[in-house]
Each structure stands twice: as C-alpha cells, then as structure tokens.
Design a protein that fits this description.
- With about 120 residues, the protein is an alpha+beta fold.
- The protein has a single domain (about 10-110), classed as Hotdog Thioesterase (Thiol Ester Dehydrase, Chain A, Roll), CATH 3.10.129.
- Helices cover about 15% and strands about 40% of the residues.
- It contains one helix and five strands, in the order βαββββ.
- The protein has one helix at about 25-45; strands spanning about 10, 45-55, 65-75, 80-90, 95-110.
- The longest helix is centred in the first third of the chain and has 19 residues, at about 25-45.
- Bound molecules: coenzyme A (COA).
C-alpha cells in the first residue's frame, strides 16, 4: 500500500469523551476541519474559511488513547474555493480502523471578507 503522511495525527484524551467513554463526534469534526485547512493551505497562503462540510457518517468509534490520523487530499480548485477530502483512521492495536471521511470546501477571502479568486502559492 502507498505510504501516506497525515496532515495531522492526535491522541485523544479522556476530556474528549462522551458519557459512554468513546470520543465525541464533534471533537473529530473539529480535527477534520483543522486537517482540511492544513491541506488547503498547501494551495494558497490567502485567508481561507470553511464554507461547508458535506455529510459525515461515523463508521467506527474512536477510543481514548488511540492514535487518530487525518489524511488529506485536494480534490478540486475552483474559482474562489478549494475542495479537500479528509479520511480519518484510528490505530487500534496493529490495525488501522476507518472512522469516517469528509468532503470540505474552503473559500479564499479578501481583506473585506468577500470571496476572492484562488491565488496558488
Ligand atoms: C463561505 C462564504 C465566504 C461564501 O460567501 P458567498 O458570498 O455566499 O460566496 P459565493 O456564493 O460567491 O461562493 C463563493 C465560492 O464558495 C462556494 N461555496 C459557497 N458556499 C458553499 C457551501 N456551503 N459549500 C460548498 N461550497 C460553497 C461556491 O461554490 C463558490 O466557489 P467557486 O468560486 O470556486 O465557484 C460566506 O458564506 C462566509 O463567510 N461564511 C462563513 C464562513 C466561516 O466563517 N466559516 C467558519 C465557521 S465558524
């Protein structure tokens, strides 16, 4: 299998859990957003904001202490927007468990906060 480097890798803590002892989906969503922004920043150094995150389905829980990797890929460069895919994998023992995937759109903004064409760096 092709070796990939994640945009970010984190170990989740007891503070990130819900009452069932597994990690809150919102915590994972927050890291997805961060990983997506890291990926979009490879395309441009402009100010970017998250315009949208498409439907996210959680396929497996994440447990405290697992190493969670957020793999990213730029999927589209539009006029003012950048599309990014984020794949989330959690290391459970010697296995990588697929947790979820997400498609995000980031938009470049000018100094007035309006969308502006993507300038590649
Ligand atoms: C995202 C935002 C800049 C879009 O502004 P807008 O005036 O509606 O933008 P436009 O309709 O001109 O679209 C601009 C680009 O964004 C894309 N876009 C806008 N909303 C989108 C959405 N919900 N999902 C995906 N793409 C979106 C458009 O397709 C367009 O892409 P293109 O130029 O590459 O073709 C504006 O709604 C905004 O500032 N939202 C808040 C963003 C933010 O603060 N995020 C963090 C939340 S805490």
């Amino acid at each position: 299998m092709e070796k990939r480097d994640p945009a970010i890798r984190v170990v989740l803590q007891p503070k990130d859990t819900n009452k069932h002892g597994t990690i809150f989906g919102g915590v994972i969503l927050s890291y997805i957003d961060l990983a997506g922004a890291v990926e979009a920043s490879k395309t441009t150094s402009q100010r970017i904001v998250t315009a949208g995150i498409k439907e996210v389905d959680f396929k497996a829980p994440v447990l405290v202490g697992e190493v969670v990797s957020f793999y990213t890929k730029t999927t589209r460069i539009g006029r003012t927007s950048i599309g990014v895919r984020v794949d989330v994998e959690s290391t459970r023992g010697h296995q990588e468990v697929h947790v979820t995937s997400a498609e995000l759109t980031f938009v470049c903004l000018d100094e007035t906060g309006r969308p502006t064409p993507v300038v590649k760096t």
